[in-house]
Amino acid sequence: xxxxxxxxxxxxxxxxxxxxxxxxxxxxxxxxxxxxxxxxxxxxxxxxxxxxxxxxxxxxxxxxxxxxxxxxxxxxxxxxxxxxxxxxxxxxxxxxxxxxxxxxxxxxxxxxxxxxxxxxxxxxxxxxxxxxxxxxxxxxxxxxxxxxxxxxxxxxxxxxxxxxxxxxxxxxxxxxxxxxxxxxxxxxxxxxxxxxxxxxxxxxxxxxxxxxxxxxxxxxxxxxxxxxxxxxxxxxxxxxxxxxxxxxxxxxxxxxxxxxxxxxxxxxxxxxxxxxxxxxxxxxxxxxxxxxxxxxxxxxxxxxxxxxxxxxxxxxxxxxxxxxxxxxxxxxxxxxxxxxxxxxxxxxxxxxxxxxxxxxxxxxxxxxxxxxxxxxxxxxxxxxxxxxxxxxxxxxxxxxxxxxxxxxxxxxxxxxxxxxxxxxxxxxxxxxxxxxxxxxxxxxxxxxxxxxxxxxxxxxxxxxxxxxxxxxxxxxxxxxxxxxxxxxxxxxxxxxxxxxxxxxxxxxxxxxxxxxxxxxxxxxxxxxxxxxxxxxxxxxxxxxxxxxxxxxxxxxxxxxxxxxxxxxxxxxxxxxxxxxxxxxxxxxxxxxxxxxxxxxxxxxxxxxxxxxxxxxxxxxxxxxxxx
Length: 627
Fold this sequence. Notes:
Elements: E1 7-8, E2 12-20, E3 24-31, E4 36-43, H1 51-65, E5 75-84, E6 90-99, E7 103-105, H2 106-112, H3 117-136, E8 149-152, E9 157-159, H4 164-169, H5 178-181, H6 190-193, H7 200-216, H8 226-235, H9 250-259, H10 271-283, H11 304-327, H12 340-348, H13 391-415, E10 428-429, H14 438-447, E11 451-457, E12 467-471, E13 477-478, E14 483-489, E15 494-496, H15 505-514, E16 518-525, E17 535-539, E18 545-547, E19 551-557, E20 560-563, H16 571-578, E21 587-591, E22 599-606, E23 611-614, E24 619-625
Helix pairs in contact: 3-7, 3-10, 7-9, 9-10, 11-12, 11-13
């Protein structure tokens, strides 16, 4: 029997080789018992030499099999195939039977072309979603890399090999394979490179490497050997991605560099946190900061001492304004921020006095105050033949600013009921957007200079696209460009009925619970292929969308088939009837007596009468003799 005709575990027929790696070969296969296409991964035989490996491997495979999530390749079965060579020596081949995914390895995509920015971000979000699910289940992947990520035909991420890396790394006899199995050096975290214990943040580091590679078209570290690359992960700083692509924003740079922090305490602490900051960095836009223009010929600058004098008058005005607020009955919890302190750096950084003769300079423009401009080349009379400002001019300018600002604040407070969302001690008070639509809430928060990360959340009571809550909550004092997580109702959550074909009742109940569905009624049914006690079909059917909590009814095989009456049919029609999927009985044709000539072609009798019979029973169809 050739390799491609090989059947393992008595049910998995191997087909074409579809992948080959350092620790395993992957074949397209068919589960002959359930009639479905699967992927069968055969691990190298020497991985089974360690007596502890088999138990660890099975334990990890079972843990992976419990993780049913759209971003994770499902594990259906695992075990060891034992073969005997021509010399009588036995060889063990650990195998894993997985969901068959039509698509392309991310590794191959990266080799073929440069990914778009959107593809890089979408794929990273998919990986982080898978990790969030697995980490909550207590499973650390340990080997996140492009070769373990499939992109299916719909462009969705499917992460493979959860838990398998741990089974290998915990086996003492297989450590020689570690460089090829437990994290390619390119994706090593510093703790892996140093041989330390790993945790969920190790997976986040490797995901950061993956994101870097997709954004830049190259990994963060390169070297002539795995050792040199691993050393760089431990000791060398990471160049920001924008060094290789100047269209990458500072916010996105910051997310990538945090994910690649050497100290795991400085990284994102969860996949959810990583994903939220990534989304916020993509949605945010960098502010444009005005930079003062200084004349190269200027010789006399305004001093900070003079700026402090101007600021001190504004501080006095602010005290008067707070007293005014008190007279008006204003709450002490919301006051205007001090403008005195910002005046000092603004004035100190202002252009030289000589440059004030040109219309382009205004040291108070950053405060929103416009001074009269002079057109043409003739200097303003006030500034003619003046090389430095007098204190009188400064006091006048400061007083003018104070009057304008205080007047503006009184107008805003007294007449427009305008909430500037500032709090004592500085900071921005998060606006209350609960109950608003997402678009309206987004506009309010971004107008405050905040970044928004949207998280959809099902709700049976709150209409879709309505904001449920924010984190931090409304009124919390936060800094500029703080990420605000906005939880938005997606309405009543809908889930697709999963495939339960071939599972026992208890196994089906476990899968349904994973999808937040419940087990409904159980009825018996006939099946030509599904063994007794296992699921034939579900009601509602596979992939039907239902609300969470819906009861799914099961039809369980009774191990029997309904034998049709094929008498008086042609041999061809009778064979087709007996080989139908819901019957699937092996057929033989004979006559009851020896014929002098040829046998007939019409069935005259059958060895099993029409009606219920045991699944897989052999049936004899009798024909008469030709006339």
